[in-house]
Amino acid sequence: MGAKTSRAAQGAKNTDGGIGRMDNIVLHVDDVFKSFGGLHALSDIDLQVAEGKTHAIIGPNGAGKSTLLNVCVGRLKPDSGAVVFNGSILSGRPPHEINQLGVARVFQTPEIFPDLSVLDNVVIPALAKRDGAFAIDAWKAMYSEGELKDKAATALEDVGLQEHMGQEGGSLSRGDKRRLELAMGLVQDPLLLLLDEPTAGMSRLDTNRTIELLQKFKARGMTKVIIEHDMHVVFSLADKVTVLAQGRIIAEGTPDEVRGNPAVQEAYLGGVHE
Ligand SMILES: Nc1ncnc2c1ncn2[C@@H]1O[C@H](COP(=O)(O)OP(=O)(O)OP(=O)(O)O)[C@@H](O)[C@H]1O
Prior knowledge:
Layout: H1 3-9, E1 25-36, E2 39-50, E3 54-58, H2 65-72, E4 80-85, E5 88-89, H3 95-100, E6 103-106, H4 118-131, H5 136-142, H6 146-158, H7 174-186, E7 192-196, H8 204-219, E8 223-227, H9 231-237, E9 240-245, E10 248-253, H10 255-259, H11 262-270
Parallel strand pairs: 3-8, 3-9, 6-7, 7-8
Antiparallel strand pairs: 1-2, 1-4, 4-5, 9-10
Helix pairs in contact: 4-6, 4-7, 6-7
Residues 36, 39, 41, 59, 61-67 line the site of adenosine-5'-triphosphate.
């Protein structure tokens, strides 16, 4: 491991790139490379996410956004480089360990249990966070624990699904399934929440409700990384934006800074030229 990673593992304080001098860096993606065969999905990725901030990752289709998120949550191992969270190196750890450290992810396609009630869908990740694995037998045994149910109910209230608690998860509308997934992330009290296109496929009304919800969590100081295509969402929520194209970072800054960046406009309109 190089000197840079060691610095990150010690909890580096950033001094540039739009983050204030005294900001605490909770996530440091340190010089990460990831290839699939001959395809360089991520090259030389270095980014830092400050505590309490909302950091958006944007870029055209195939830019490497999901690959980056998968590297952060342990679903993919980087070929080189490291992901450091609050001083712990995440790279190479299994997803449940990363989850235990306080990193939760909300997927692009909701991964819910359609036959279970909305409340039970949220009890399961609460139990997994406490016990370290998605152990259904353990869940059955522990189901009577009021504490977990109360916690799950609070998360559902937070996302506005309190009236649907007894309903089967599969019967929810698409927008409500996304909110259910958000509750499944929130119930774990994450220190860092990673969201993969939280408003994909939503109506404008649902999108605006989700923006309001995420603004509420921002006010509580939760650190978030959001992959998002909808610029209205990005500009409503992000403190900082990293722009990927063809697996590389081509721009980084505040939403206003990246909005006017010619390289970003070119990447979206006509592809990036080496
Ligand atoms: N498991 C895989 N095996 C082979 N190639 C992959 C794999 N996952 C991603 N890729 C390729 O890596 C590149 C980056 O893909 P990725 O899904 O990370 O992009 P993205 O920015 O999330 O795209 P989108 O916005 O369309 O979801 C693409 O060329 C994709 O085809």
